[in-house]
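Exercise (ungraded).
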Amino acid sequence: MTVDVSTKELLVARDGLDVHKEKFAALNAQVGVEVLPLAHQYNLRVSPNSDSAVAVEALLGSALPTSPSWVSSPAGQTIIWLGPDEWLIIDTPHHTDFEASLRDATKGHGAVVDQSGQRISLLITGDAPGLLAKGTALNLHSTAFPRGAALQGFLARAVVIYLSRSENSSRIELVVRTSFARYVADWLLDAALDPLAYPTPYGERTCH
Amino acid sequence: MTQQYRTPTGGHITRDTALSFEFEGTLIEGYAGDTLASALLSNGVHHVTTSIKFGRPRGIAAAGSEDPNGLIQITTPIPEPMQLATTVELAPGLSAHGIPGQGTLPTEPDPARYDTAHLHVDLLVIGAGPAGLNAALEAARAGARVALVDEQPLPGGYLLSTPCMIGGANSTEWIAQTAAELAARAVIHLQRTTVFGLYDDGLALAVERRTDHRGSDAAPDSLRQRIWRIRAIRTIVATGAHERPIVFADNDRPGILLAGSARTFLNRFGVRVGDSVTVFTTNDSAYSSAFDLHDAGVHVGAIIDSRLVIGTEWIEGAKIRGIPLHSGSVVTGTSGDNRLTSITLRRFNGTSFGTAESYEADTLLVSGGWNPAVHLYSQAGGMLRYDERLGAFVPHREVDAADVAASRSGTTFVPHREVDALRRPLPRSHEKFVPHTGVDGLAIAGSAAGKFGLREALDSSHKAVREALVDLRLAHSPSRPPEVEEDRDHTPGAVLWFVPSDDPHKLTTHFVDMQRDATVADIAHAISAGLRSVEHVKRYTTIGTAHDQGKTSGTVASGIVAEISGEKMSSLGTTRFRPPYTPVAFAALAGRARGHLFDPVRVTAIHDWHIAHGAEFEDVGQWKRPRYYPRNGEDMHAAVKRETIAARNAVGILDGSTLGKIDVQGPDAAEFLDRIYTNIMSTLKIGSIRYGVMCGVDGMVIDDGTVLRTEEDRFLVYTTTGGAARVLDWLEEWLQTEWPELRVYLSSATEHLVTFPVVGPRSRAVIGELFPDLDASNEAFPFMTWRDTKLANIPVRIARVSFSGELAYEVSVLSWYGLELWTRLIETGAKHGITPYGTEAMHVLRAEKGYPIVGQDTDGTVTPQDLGMSWVVSKKKLDFIGKRSFDRAANRDDTRRQLVGLLPDDPTKLIPEGSQLVTIESLDHATVPITMDGFVTSSYDSHALGSTFALALLVGGSTRLGEKINAVVNGELLPATITNHVLFDQEGVRRDG
């Protein structure tokens, strides 16, 4: 561990999942797990239908979702409904001064908290419901979890946010608390060792 | 052995795959498709074990999971106790032996894997007999998402035992066609999967056995079992029926088994259960077993029927085959040792017996009628009633006022919970869709519903599917249940629980629950002892408490209680059905939650550094925290000593990232915190920090930590590591339920930031060097303030707080950069002797200063005043949580336990934490109970003090400083001096460096 003590040198951002990334890369083709790059994210608390909410929506260029779901802002931010007055905004493109602008929009009538270090995202691809059904009681099948849905619940014994990133449930993003990330990653690797929870054509209504 | 009892053809076994297995040390052969029981019977082995209490020989008494007798221990390939010979599939490498009611848990580790799977479906069908197969097929054709779950290796249920024509095909073909269509329609069809629990709201738990049938061919670490957690909008229970025995003298000998089971062994496994068979029945169904066996070449010596009136077709059938038929007769005794040799029968008119007659027989088939397998249905809340004709508890039919009234008058058995449910007006959906069960979404069909005939079973399944489809808003397909021949052997027979005598107390070989060696005499004694409730009788006699949960003995026991006590069966009811339906291994329930996945392990951003530097870890909640960093073979004592010396004399560094952090924001944030903490937070200036204590409404300490005011309307609250989630919930609860008018928002920031206290007289030098933009001097950066600075353009916050009494700077940064910051602090501090220290050294340092740990030095009964912190309780604030309790006399009592320090007379002796403190001088002649003055909460060896020391909660402690007290340690008294709880640097001169 040799680091130049010079304060001039940039600090390296780390997600602590390097070992897991190698193991994820070695998974067979049925499911894939990808550690998404670290992203700035903010917890937004604001009363819906308030002036502050309107100001936030103007800033984002997008309505705040009002049901368990996520939307994408024109600038590429993911806005996730967490509760009646709570959203998580993942600012993947990392806009300069975004937090300050957000704070201005809510000034005095809400709260903005930088939670960038609080969570990390893992993207499950392929037969994602077949893998995740081993650890969650939530129905992640595409009929119940279409693109745009966002749910919160347990995966095994960790609370995660599930984002449906595709129509057919083949891309599900898990937003995981940082301190639980290795547990979740270990769990995913272990779960992937065994056959998936159900075969791919599961539950397609065959006639109607 | 030679499988001399195997039929030449037939059965659902694979005759070209012979399998050798070992039983009781003997090598035996069977076929793929056999159970261990059918393979043993094919070789003439009935006797498999001895009974638990009396050591009586016991054999195979049934063909499935209802067998009360045939418990075995599997020794290879996967050791497992308490398995049933009738449900263990023959597999390569199998060896087993019988066990007398108790097995032995294997001691070797289990390499197999276990899994869980959640499944969501429109319709769950439990049981793949004719009713279940038909239900699944009709629902799938209508477009429903269906799961079909069955405990047997093969679908078909009792059709496998009773071949017939169905839907224009023979039953084997019909089963295959149906299964193929189910697969084509993407039905989740799970065989070898037992639904063992059915719960409210359509939740079913099932265990799938995936590899045991492959025996040693399966890799030892393959996925052996999976727990399915199935949520269904509708559930159809089609679990079939269990045959009921009749209880008579010596009814437990090997060779005595249920009649329908003998038919199963013959038709499904191609096994004749004996050479010379007699039949004892109360109903028609046993005749088919007798005739099938006769037609397969078995000598059927006699049919003994308790009824006087018997259908002509059965009389004719027996006559044609030359089988003597004894009507109005019962079996009154048997002979034989390890196998039945003869039976005795007498005419019996319900009160008196005729003369005895004997038959030589190696096998006796018994049928007392059939019990619908209502276990799962009842678990889920389905109502039962006693059917006099069937002598069985069957699903309650129409839900209406008349039935409720009947249940109150005692003629219908309805569990109380269901009666209560009925008193409420039913929701509309019930009126429309659920006339059957009174439980939302639950239906029951086939023989499980008491519909024993194949045609009526299929009709009931059709009806249940139609209701389900309406509920699911799916159009019913035009499909009808398949056409079947009339079958009549299900006509209800006589109800005979046991063959009586003058005094039931003497019926000591009338076995009711063979696994428990419990007899009619035991029930008679229970009733003589005044017991009437079947639940009480069950517990007095242990009937129904074995592995089989009374599948064959439960109803019979109720019947015997009714008969002996004179109570009505309908008012006695049956014992409650509870999960699991069949035993489930804990390993399966644990799934992958074992080993390192047993519970989440939470780690900080620099966990790998701790590992690389040899840290020993301590569990704090779910966190792994370094406890100490041993060097060069140090033990904990040596390492902790070195680490505390560094922190007191040079500089140490701790990973404090696990501390809880809560962002409190909003115009009323200061007011909110004033109400939460015992001290004032609203007067805190931006840039400053205050230590605070939170109490419950009872005035007892629940958490403590520092509060940073970051903006006019914004605070950062630090909580204890273990209290983080609890405190956030506590704050939210007050905010949402009591003070919704406060404009405050709470957000967790625990993992957003890492926090590293840099502690010791040289800490200022380290901080000053790494953060040149920051003036770390005492004047510019005083104690209990925070400053923002940057490291390589990344914002860093530094707070001057101290949990050690030393000059200290707590450095925080976005957790992404945690490892970078930590390593730069270590590198910068190297020349100052910076030493990473763990939680153990942290504890020593804080205890020397008398700082309590909430949860270690407190236990929910300790006030701030007890901790010597009256100063932290505001006397100015109008109110805060706990304030009112501080006015209670009990809270002001001088004799409360108070935190003190203890210095042992012998500075080398450590008083163990938890030790009791007493004033007596000797334990030798002490009168008990000895007055306990308090107990030790923390105890360490201190280099700074040159002595061991302890913190303790002591009665009236604050007034006893300087007195002596004795700690009781392993029966010895260890004398110590009571001191102020602050033992080191009482003046606090060190914190500013």
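Further reading is listed at the end of the chapter. For now, observe: The radius of gyration of chain B is 38 Å. Chain B has 24 helices and 49 strands.
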